[in-house]
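Q: My labmate handed me this sequence with no annotations at all. I'd like to see what the chain might look like in three dimensions before we decide whether it's worth expressing. Could you predict it?
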Amino acid sequence: MNWDAAVVLAALKQIGENGDSAYAVCTHPGHHSSYDSFGGYCYVNHAAMAARYLQSGQFNHKKIAILDIDYHAGNGTSSIFYSDPSVFVVSIHCHPKDEYPFNSGWEDQRGQGEAFGTCLNFPLPAGMML
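A: Here is what I predict for the chain of 130 residues:
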């Protein structure tokens, strides 16, 4: 197991034991990692791992929200939940016309099917995220 996954699992354990919220600070959030690809040094999507963990087992949460604030769009997280109406993904990032990933994070990418509207991208103009 990598250290970031261990940090996320420790936070989930705290939530399970205390019913409180927890904040997991990871060196690599994993938001460029998807089911079938990786990028930007992200090999495991820790946010997606936590969301699925919270939806199963002792937690059994029906709805999950993920807020991704990073210079780059969370393309991996968005793609994992793009067709899943049970997970609401918000990404605030530099505009993809200016920065990687250039094919993801656009305002009109809002989810598909029953999940339309559960993926919100807020790309900011170049220079806003410095």
